[in-house]
Amino acid sequence: MKILKILSLAFTVTISIFLQAQDTQKGTISPDLLDQIKKYVTDDATTRGLINAISGNDIQQLALNRSSEYSPDMYFSNRVNTKGITNQKSSGRCWLYTGLNMMRVQVINRNEMESFELSQTYPFFWDQLEKANLFLEGIIQSAGKPLDDKRVDWLLKNPIGDGGQWTGVVDIIEKYGVVPSEIMPDTKNSENTRLMSNLLSTKLRAQAVTLRKLFAEKKNAADLQNQKVAMLGEIYRILVLTLGEPPAGFDWRYKKINGEITGLTHYTPLSFYKDFVQVNLTDYVMFMNDPSREFNKLYEIDYDRHSYEGGNWKYINLPAEEISQFAKQSLINGDAMYFSCDVGKQLNKEKGTLDLNNYAYADLFGVDFSMDKAQRIQTFESGSSHGMNLVGVDLDKDGNIKKWLLENSWGATAGYNGFLVMTNDWFREYMFRLVIKKQYIPENILKILETTPTLLPPWDPMFSPEE
Predict the structure, then answer these.
(1) What stretch of H or E contains 74?
(2) pLDDT in tens, 49-66
(3) Three-state SS for 317?
(4) What dihedral do alpha carbons 338, 342, 347, 352 form, nearest 10°?
(5) Domains (ranges, CATH) in the chain?
(6) Tens digits of per-residue pLDDT, 252-297?
(7) What is the spatial distance between Cα 89 and Cα 67, in angstroms, rounded to a whole number?
(8) Which one of 65, 94, 189, 306 is the catalytic residue?
(9) Burial of 416 per CB tally in 10 Å (0-12, 13-18, 19+)
(10) Are 345 and 263 in contact (CB under 8 A)?
């Protein structure tokens, strides 16, 4: 009987191994399967010509759709009066440039200034320190969890970065204020952030190891907080050495269009923001167009903020067409907006156009790449990658939207003299976030802000800071 049981068990194991081998063979590229795959490429003159052309040339240039090349004029029925194009250079600070440029245009027009630019380095300095503190607090609070815990894993993969979004603009400026660009100008490292960001990430991860070790040694909360202070001191030192030390106060004056030079006034960064800039950043609401989720609802992304006490990224999800109507009304009234999108999709950099038909990759390869917007979001194919200012809209005689104008921060030689022109079809497909003054939003939509938001995890597909 015992021998029969052993033989039965051996037979069962053998069958199991055989079936596993069969399953593995089903998933592998066998010679027969490879023959079937190869049939999708025919050996003919057209295919040989395509191989020669595509393998030896720039794909995007070959895919340029010359039969429907978008060449819009630069006239807009409604355009905000902007002055000067900024340049973020090799940094991911577009979110700061976008927020500050939205404020800048209001300051220039209100004070009849010749020119004016807010320092991007000043709020960036505090953003980096605040993000470091947020990370270290997250490490302390999760110190008892294993390294493969989803939140711990996410924290260690995202200790700090130079990207961000609207809520960071609000929280950093409301707390630290702003200064003119000449008071704290850019440095080599604010314009080229890669190495600085890498060093900060390395240091923060090393600090995380120390904090987790102290927790494992049963150190109390006060000991961990004291250690955090010393760690932030090291981060502060790196920031001062790379970006310069932020000013506590400064004297400043400016020149008006008529040539008048104003009197010299002493400011702190906060008094300059409140007394001179005078833009209420809390008077705006962020909208998202995410068709993969229910519309007319409030969403919040957990731990997606720029400071420990700051607000998580919170937005109302609406159809793109509805958001576009609010944006149209804002521009009719002369108010620029914070706008973010998936800028790399169908962007003709040379002409400065965003059009769905700029490039015909499907025609070039004979392969269908299409997905709808919800599918692109769910598969991480598309998400917000860049922030700009929405400053113009062109309307026909019936009020229908023909095209939009974006003020970019890639310098005056990029695109069309620093601007990008966007079709309304492209707006619907690749616009993600738009920040609009509450005065242009109907009451029933604003009431959504009073509802309990749906909380999303920080690793949600919508976690995509603008760069």
Answers:
(1) none
(2) 999 999 999 999 999 998
(3) strand
(4) 10
(5) 78-456 (3.90.70.10)
(6) 999 999 999 999 999 999 999 999 999 999 999 999 999 999 999 9
(7) 33
(8) 94
(9) middle
(10) no
Place of tokens 């004070």: 111
- Mean pLDDT taken over the chain: 93
The pair of three-digit structure tokens given for residue 368, joined into one six-digit string: 């269908």
Residues paired with 387 in a beta bridge: 340
Active site residue 386: yes
Partners of 300 in the beta sheet?
A: 314, 455
Query: Which of 189, 289, 358, 408 is the catalytic position?
Result: 408
| Structural tokens at position 463 | 């976690």
Asked if residue 45 has pLDDT above 90, the reply is yes
> Residue 15's pLDDT is what?
47
In whole angstroms, give the CA distance from residue 173 to residue 127: 9
Give yes or no: 94 in active site: yes
Phi, psi of 311 (to 5 degrees): -90, 140
Mapped onto helix, strand or coil, the DSSP state of residue 112 is coil
Please give the DSSP secondary-structure letter assigned to residue 397: T
Angstrom distance (rounded) from CA 310 to CA 102? 21
pLDDT at 217: 96
Catalytic residue selected from 101, 158, 341, 386 = 386
Top pLDDT among 27 and 145 is at 145
Known catalytic residue: 341? no
- Give the span between the Cα atoms of 245 and 224, in whole angstroms: 27
Decide if 453 contacts 314 (C-beta within 8 A): yes
Average pLDDT value for residue range 101-117: 95
